[in-house]
Every structure is written in structure tokens, then in C-alpha cells.
Amino acid sequence: MLKKKLVVLGVALGILAMGSPAAAFAEIDDTYTPYVLPAAVSIEGAVITPCESSTIMFGASYWIAGETVSVSAVGARVAGANFTPSVNAGADGSLSATFQPPADGDGVYDITFTSSTQSYTAPITVTPVANCEADPQVDQALALTGGGTSPWIYGIGGGLLVAGSALITVTVLRRRQA
After folding, report:
1. For the domain bounded by 41-126, which CATH number is listed?
2. What pLDDT sits at residue 111?
3. In 3-state terms, what secondary structure has residue 172?
4. Share of the chain above pLDDT 70, in %
5. Rounded distance, CA 143 to CA 136, Å?
């Protein structure tokens, strides 16, 4: 009875060792923001480096057609940032504006759009880099978090599988002899 339990345990451990957990991978796109945006607003490049720019887009009917919207920015060393201080909404009420952080930008910049009817603040996070020409753009995929399987796991799993198979073989041979 003990031998059967050891065989079952050996096979179960071999299966567990060989079966790696499925890693769930997701991709973060450029429109990620830490909170839910209204349906008509999107931010391309909510997290950028000083070498990149961010575009805030408002969909149709967000603003009154043709209305003037003032744009202001608040953040560290914002005087060196590049953005248009005033934009006009399109005929359909849509609007698009670009924000380029200062060369030494760091932290969160709040870009506020204000008209006579409403206002909206878009947060843009700037992550500093040492040199724009030397640092390639960061891959937007998720970081490797250990979801993969190490080669030594395969070795241990294979060894357990061989040991379990050997136990089964020895048990079958002993029964035939008995």
C-alpha cells in the first residue's frame, strides 16, 4: 500500500514539476491613465520621457463647435515645456493638443483645458532619461516578472518523472515475480 502511495506521489510531483503555470501577459498602450477618462477623451503618451511628446484628443461634441479653449500646464520646470496656450475646437466640437515636456522634465504635469462652458485636466507623467540620443525608447510591454520557467525546473521535473516511472516498473516486475 505504501508503494502505491509513493508511486502516485512520484507521478504527481513529476506532473507538477513539468507543468509550468501559464503567464498572463498584457500590453500597456500609450493611452493608459491612472483613472477612467470620459468617453470622448484620449491621451496618447500619458507616460513619456522628456524626448517624447503627448497628444490629448477630445472627441466630437466634447466642446462647443469653434469655441476657444485655453491651455495651461502645471509641473516642475514647466516654463521649458512646449504647448499651444490656446486652441479652437473643430466644427464637430473635437480638439487635439500636443504637449512636449521640458528637456529636464520630471514628474506629473497637469495640462488643463478651459473654455467658457467646461474644463478638463489631463495628467501627463514624465520619466527623466540621461540623454535623449543615447537612450532608446522604452519598450511598452510588461516587464519580465518571473513567469517563465527556469531550466533547472525541467531537470528536476524530468528526474521526478524518471524516478516515478522507475518505481512503477519495479513494482510491476516484483508483482510478476511473486
Report:
1. 2.60.40.10
2. 95
3. helix
4. 76
5. 16
pTM of the model: 0.53
C-beta neighbour count of 4 within 10 angstroms: 11
Residue ranges with strand state E in the chain: 41-44, 47-48, 54-58, 68-74, 82-83, 86-88, 95-100, 107-114, 119-126
Q: Is the dihedral of CA 129, 135, 136, 141 positive or negative?
A: negative
Backbone angles phi, psi at 164, to 5 degrees: -65, -40
pLDDT tens digits for 33-54?
Answer: 444 445 588 999 899 998 899 9
In whole angstroms, give the CA distance from residue 60 to residue 42: 12
First to last CA, the chain: 16
Integer CA distances (angstroms), 71 to 28, 29, 106, 115, in order:
27, 25, 20, 9
Cα 130 from Cα 47, distance rounded (Å)? 17
Domain spans, the chain:
2-23+146-177, 41-126
